Amino acid sequence: MADRVSTFEQFVKFGTDAYGIERLLRLLQSLTTLLLFTPTLLTSFLPLSSPLTTLTPSTLTHLRTRLATLRQPLRFFRFLDSFSAAWSVLSSLQQSSHHHDHHHKNKRDWPDRLQQWLDFGSKAFTGMYLLLESLVFIEVVLDAPGLGVWASREVVVGLVVDGQRFWFAGLVCGVLGGVVKLMRDGLEEGKREKGGKRGKGKVVRRLVADVMDLGLPGSVVGWVPLVPGTVGLLMLGSTVLTGLEVWERCGREVVAAKKAAREGR
Q1: Spatial separation of the C-alpha atoms in residues 128 and 173, rounded to whole Å
Q2: Among 199, 261, 241, 258, which Cα is nearest to 13's?
Q3: Phi/psi of residue 56, each to 5°?
């Protein structure tokens, strides 16, 4: 008999998971951005007597900044996770290259290898973004007078912008990798079963989230001209989609914990 997970149990797991907390803070940050740059939302959905309608732009700006800085400690060492994943993909590519010599390679293997290289690029570029973000942790998050690592504020800003460029590159690789996977899966659609279709849905969800996220670093470096309200809307959409991944993982972990507890009796 399969273990059932209640919404409360799943939320408890989600709310105590580092990734889950980070997604919740990102959701609040995106909503704050929308309220800041689209003030008519407050008066449209809330009564004029509501305390939220009296929030000033300076309050919302401060709140958005605080939410952004609260998220960074949760990502401080996440660049190690990205680099580790990139190394695993690269090792897999090297092993497959040694396993098959030039004469025995199947020409139809190229979509798999292309997807792996794009996956490597996505994880490596994202790792660089997270590393640069961690390098300015003292200046951006702690922001203590007289305490700093870098010589000037301009250096810090430059590192932040460079990090956004790496993030954009990682997202582009992720989008292209998702497209290649969907094209490859489409060629084998007749052989795929229900589980494969479910997996395809997750690929599409991740692809849409990455496309939405492109607007965030793209607007910072000037490659994607978007108004702040649109950026907030894209951030909200991608947060919901990526948050669903964490939510589903937390559900699976609760099921696994219940199963382990039952078998250990």
Answers
A1: 14
A2: 258
A3: -90, 160
Q: How far, in whole angstroms, is CA 30 from its chain's centroid?
A: 14
**Count of other CB atoms within 10 angstroms of residue 197:** 11
Each residue of 186-234: pLDDT tens digit? Answer: 766 655 555 556 678 999 999 999 999 999 999 999 999 999 999 999 9
Q: Is residue 142 part of a domain?
A: yes
All residues at 6 or more sequence positions from 143 whose CB lies less than 8 Å from its CB, including other chains: none
Q: Which two tokens stand for residue 76?
A: 């401080």
Q: Which domain holds residue 150?
A: 76-198
**Which residues are within 8 A (CB) of 23 and not within 5 positions of it... i.e. 6 or more apart?**
239, 242, 243, 246
Of 137, 15, 118, 27, nearest to 78 by C-alpha is 137
Structural domains of the chain, count: 1
pLDDT in tens, 84-133: 999 999 999 888 776 655 555 555 578 889 999 999 999 999 999 999 99
Residue 92 lies in a domain: yes
Q: Which residue has the tokens 């460029």?
A: 165
Task: Classify residue 19: in a domain, yes or no.
Answer: no
